[in-house]
Structures are given as structure tokens and as C-alpha cells.
Amino acid sequence: WHRRHDYWLLAGVVTHGYSRWQDIQIDPKFSIINEPFKMDMAKGNFLEMKNKFLARRFKLLEQALVIEEQLRRAAFLGLAMEQTNPA
Questions:
Q1: pTM (global) more than 0.70
Q2: Residue ranges of the CHD C-terminal domain (predicted)?
Q3: 70, 45 in Cβ contact below 8 A?
Q4: Which has the higher per-residue pLDDT, 27 or 43?
């Protein structure tokens, strides 16, 4: 799984909507998302495993984007971490 997969996963969520993993996987524009799972297709719970991975990965990307935005805002406002505050 690479950055390009993350990009297309985010683009798929923008196009098809949140938690629409099946629609994203079926769409030919987002076929790159299916590439990392080609070796696991023989497993019985393949689709469930794949959908859970996509949901976890999206949640991780979502959290990273939120933190990035908070850091950007803090830099814009000139906020700095206090050395006396352990948080």
C-alpha cells in the first residue's frame, strides 16, 4: 500500500461517499485500490477483510488530515508549545 493508493482511496470517498467501499472497488477509475489485495482473493473472508482494511486506512488518513490542519492553523496563528506544559 503506497501513497498513490491513499490518494485514490480519498478520491473514491469524495466521488462515491463515505463507507461506500463496494462502489469504490467496482468503479474502474479506482481499480488501483484492488491491486494490493490480489494475493488474498482465495481467502474465504476476502471481501470483509478488504472492506475493514479500507475503513481503517481511511480513518487513519482522516485523522492525519485533521492533525495536519490543526498544525497549519497553529503555525498561522503563531502558537508555540509551552515548555512548562507536558501536553
A1: no
A2: 1-84
A3: no
A4: 27
For residue 71, what are the CA distances in angstroms to 57, 60, 83, 84? 21, 17, 17, 20
36-75 b/e with 16+ CB inside 10 Å = b?
A: ebeeeeeeeeeeeebbeebeebbeeeeeeeeeeeeeeeee
Q: At what angle do helices 46-77 and 3-16 cross, to 10 degrees?
A: 90
Helix (H, G, I), strand (E, B) or coil at 24: helix
Sheet strands (E) in the chain: none
Work out the mean pLDDT of the chain and round it to a whole number: 84
